[in-house]
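Action item from last meeting closed. Structure (166 res):
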C-alpha cells in the first residue's frame, strides 16, 4: 500500500496535484489539514485512490473532522492537524492521543516543518508543508509511506523540485 501524506497546502492545489503526479500511482492521499478547499472537488472523481483529510486551523468547512483513525494493513493511523494538541511545544500530547485511540502511527501538520521519529512506541510523522515550508532551505515537502504485505512500514521524506522562473 502506497500512501501520500501532505499537509498545509493552503489553497495551493496545483502543488498537491504535482506531488500526486510525481508519486502516482498511490492508494491513498492523507492531508493533515489547512487544505483551504474541497479536495474531493479539486481532485475530481476520476481518481483511483482514497482521500482522507482533517481540518486545520485555516479550514472552515464542516465536512472535515478534527481527527481521524485510518485502518491500514497491520496498523492504525491517527491523523490530526495538531493545533489543538499544542504541537509547537512538542508531540507528547499527540502521542498520548494516538495511544488513547489505539493508533501506532500519528500524522500531523501545522508546524510547516517535516518531522519523523518514534516516540513512546508511536511512529510520528509530519510531512512539512507542501506550500509554505518553514524549515531551513524552505523546501516544499511531503511524505510517501509504503506498507508492505508483512506490515513493514517505510517512510520517505520527499521534496517538490523548484520550478524555473520562465
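Sequence:
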Amino acid at each position: 500500500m502506497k500512501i501520500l501524506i501532505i499537509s498545509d497546502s493552503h489553497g495551493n492545489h496545483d502543488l498537491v496535484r504535482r506531488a500526486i503526479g510525481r508519486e502516482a500511482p498511490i492508494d491513498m492521499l492523507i492531508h493533515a489539514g489547512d487544505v483551504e478547499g474541497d479536495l474531493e472537488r479539486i481532485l475530481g472523481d476520476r481518481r483511483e485512490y482514497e482521500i482522507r483529510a482533517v481540518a486545520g486551523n485555516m479550514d472552515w468547512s464542516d465536512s472535515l473532522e478534527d481527527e481521524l483513525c485510518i485502518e491500514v494493513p497491520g496498523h492504525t493511523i491517527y491523523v490530526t492537524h495538531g493545533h489543538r494538541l499544542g504541537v509547537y511545544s512538542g508531540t507528547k500530547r499527540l502521542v498520548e492521543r494516538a495511544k488513547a485511540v489505539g493508533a501506532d502511527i500519528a500524522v500531523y501538520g501545522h508546524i510547516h516543518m517535516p518531522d519523523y521519529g518514534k516516540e513512546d512506541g508511536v511512529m510520528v510523522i509530519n510531512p512539512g508543508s507542501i506550500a509554505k515550508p518553514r524549515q531551513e532551505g524552505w523546501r516544499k515537502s511531503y511524505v510517501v509511506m509504503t506498507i508492505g504485505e508483512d506490515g513493514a512500514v517505510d517512510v520517505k521524506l520527499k521534496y517538490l523540485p523548484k520550478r524555473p522562473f520562465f
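Note appended to the action item: Residues 143 and 157 are 5 Å apart (CA to CA).
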